[in-house]
Write a structure and sequence with these properties.
Radius of gyration of chain B: 22 Å
Largest interface: A-B, 39 and 42 residues
Strand content of chain A: under 5%
Keywords (chain A): Cell membrane, Membrane, Transmembrane, Transmembrane helix
Family (chain A): Belongs to the CPA3 antiporters (TC 2.A.63) subunit C family.
Strand content of chain B: under 5%
Strand order of the largest sheet of chain B: 1-2
Distance between the termini of chain B: 10 Å
Distance between the termini of chain A: 56 Å
Subcellular location (chain A): Cell membrane
Structural class of chain A: mainly alpha
Shape of chain B: globular
Radius of gyration of chain A: 20 Å
Largest sheet of chain A: none
InterPro entries (chain A): CPA3_antiporter_subunitC, NUOK/Mnh_C1-like
Membrane topology (chain A): Multi-pass membrane protein
Number of helices of chain A: 3
Order of helices and strands of chain A: HHH
Number of helices of chain B: 21
Helix content of chain A: 55-70%
Oligomer: heterodimer
Helix content of chain B: over 70%
Structural class of chain B: mainly alpha
Chain lengths: 113, 497
């Protein structure tokens, strides 16, 4: 199961890298989305995918899955959610002010004298 | 070691201040007073913390009273408490400077709360004893820096923030990935516990070296080491000067601190690989920095590239990893934070007076602004490390440490590049301040020159005292290095065996 997840995560990382290298800012944002999906799945996988009950206190004492990676993911998800929201608004404002979605046109030469 | 709530206060006070300030965003005067007052309180708390650590050893606080490896533990050893003190002082000076220079538009749009949030993130990153909590504090710091960078919404700010944000989103994802790998090896997140478990491994797996390099990439992107520095010159050029000061003095140094911490606490087993790589990267970083700083005629760019040079010097000391070189690095780290902040503020005053940052477009400032000129002169020779000013002791010890370990080439390069650093900052002095007075600079921005000068002089004076009082500072730095060189002291203090 871990192997399958590793392949999937690798595919997500490859797609994210490809998208991040493109010129359009929107494609880059989609790339960052995929990158954080990959990272979050990786935490889950690295914590171990052994079978167990949901980590809620149970009376009969059955073993539960590792609760720690789930807490880490939850934290990482809201953080990347906040950053993505900011990034989208920034791209929108950038489009309004700078009039382009193309990274090539955002080159800066200020101060290069 | 008993519980000590003092450890959390340098994080808590700015946090509380930020929350309060958000409710009174339109009342600028009250915001200013509260910001200055709170940052002064933070400075005093940080000073008290340094005193406590020096007398009673490492201070720890288990949040929520959960015993060490299971809860989040905040740890103030001498290194982190000194850095927290330095951060708080810089925060205070920048807020003072902002009052007279940042402008009402930004002040009404949550400038002061975001500065406080930035200080929360930096102080938290210096204090935490948990690797995932370090990630969270990194994000607090970065999120605040994104907003500070773009606040005002000019074209150049929007453009450069898009780049800065993209780079940091990627490095944050890599941080999460690195933590996930490390967790799968050691099964814990508490930094002392990780170090202990790595120490207990009978055979160090190769994957640990891979993780060490991954951490180097993550923190290298934050700390702008070669070849991961590419985002820095553009991004730091865009925002107004007080923001530039905060970013330049604090943010990259958190990356350096994280490298020092993880490489002394976790990854000290395969030094022939990890530390040698770090050494080569540090030397190239120094070279890149000086090439940039002598190439440009823009005063902001010159100081920005000097950040990169200093990062290389500090990393060189860390990579040599002897007691001497580590002492040098810690000395230089604190010196560099203070003097870079002072230089940026002085540069800001020059730009405010002349209305340009192009060195070819003004000269003869010393005729009208002699105080500014001489303060700048002192700051410049401090940066270059002329004895007895503050940059000297650190660089001397770093080079001496390198020589002792037989790293001749690297040490000689760092020695020679000091001359180029001196040239780059003296260029500003010679071309900008000397010369005849044939230009008039009307007070175009109606700024209060004297009031802007106060925080810059404050920082320069601290830097000078730091240089002249290096004997006095030594006992503190030695204690910081002791913990870095002997991780068991750290582990013992946290896990209370």
């Amino acid at each position: 199961m871990e192997l399958l997840m590793a392949i999937l995560i690798g595919f997500l990382f490859a797609s994210a890298t490809y998208l991040l290298l493109s010129k359009s800012i929107l494609r880059m944002i989609i790339g960052t989305g995929l990158l954080s999906h990959g990272a979050h799945l990786l935490i889950l996988t690295m914590g171990g995918l052994k079978k167990g009950a949901v980590p809620i206190v149970n009376g009969d004492g059955t073993p539960v899955t590792d609760p720690l990676p789930q807490a880490l993911i939850l934290t990482a998800i809201v953080i990347s959610f906040g950053v993505t929201a900011l990034f989208l608004v920034l791209a929108y404002r950038g489009y309004q002010e700078l009039g382009t979605d193309n990274m090539d046109e955002l080159r800066g030469t200020d101060g290069n004298e | 070691m008993e519980m000590n709530n003092l450890v959390v206060l340098p994080i808590f006070v700015p946090l509380l201040t930020a929350v309060i300030l958000m409710f009174i965003s339109k009342k600028i005067n009250i915001q200013r007073w509260i910001s200055v007052g709170a940052s002064l309180v933070t400075v005093m708390i940080a000073g008290l913390l340094v005193h406590h650590v020096s007398t009673d050893g490492i201070q720890t606080l288990d949040i929520g009273s959960w015993p060490a490896p299971f809860g989040i533990t905040l740890v103030s050893d001498m290194l982190s408490s000194l850095l927290v003190l330095t951060t708080s002082i810089i925060g205070f000076a920048v807020i003072l400077y902002s009052i007279y220079s940042i402008g009402e538009g930004r002040e009404k749009h949550f400038y002061y709360p975001i500065v406080q949030f930035l200080i929360v993130g930096v102080n938290g990153a210096f204090t935490t004893g948990d690797i995932f909590n370090l990630f969270v504090f990194f994000e607090v710091m970065l999120m605040a820096s994104y907003v500070l960078l773009v606040l005002g919404g000019t074209k150049i700010q929007l453009r450069e923030t898009i780049k800065y944000l993209t780079v940091n989103v990627i490095s944050s994802s890599l941080f999460v990935i690195a933590v996930a790998y490390l967790y799968s090896i050691v099964g814990t997140l508490n930094m002392a516990h990780i170090s202990q478990r790595i120490g207990l491994l009978e055979e160090i797996p190769g994957i640990l070296t891979v993780i060490a390099i991954l951490f180097l990439i993550v923190f290298g992107l934050k700390g702008a080491i070669f070849p991961l520095y590419f985002w820095l010159p553009g991004s730091y050029y865009a925002p107004p000067v007080p923001v530039m000061t905060l970013l330049g003095a604090l943010l990259t140094k958190v990356g350096i601190y994280s490298i020092a911490r993880t490489y002394s606490l976790f990854f000290y087993h395969d030094q022939s690989y990890t530390h040698d790589l770090l050494l080569v990267l540090a030397v190239v970083t120094v070279l890149i920095g000086v090439v940039g700083s002598i190439a440009y005629w823009d005063i902001k760019k010159i100081i920005i590239y000097n950040i990169i040079t200093a990062i290389g010097v500090i990393l060189y000391g860390i990579s040599v990893a002897t007691t001497t070189s580590m002492t040098g690095s810690v000395y230089y780290l604190i010196h560099d934070m203070i003097i870079k902040a002072a230089l940026f503020l002085l540069i800001g005053i020059i730009v405010n007076i002349t209305g340009t940052s192009n060195l070819k477009k003004f000269h003869g400032l010393i005729n009208d602004y002699p105080v500014l000129a001489w303060v700048y002169f002192i700051a410049a020779i401090s940066l270059a490390g002329i004895p007895p000013f503050s940059g000297f002791v650190g660089k001397w010890l770093v080079i001496q440490g390198g020589m002792e370990r037989g790293e001749l080439i690297g040490s000689v390069i760092i020695l020679l590049t000091s001359l180029l650093v001196l040239y780059s900052v003296m260029k500003i002095f010679i071309y900008g301040f000397w010369g005849g007075k044939d230009q008039d600079y009307p007070d175009q921005h109606s700024i209060s020159y004297n009031k802007l000068l106060i925080p810059a002089i404050l920082l320069t004076v601290i830097a000078v005292l730091y240089g002249f009082g290096s004997e006095f500072v030594y006992s503190y730095v030695a204690q910081a290095v002791d913990t870095l060189m002997n991780p068991e002291i750290y582990i013992e203090a946290v896990l209370k065996e």
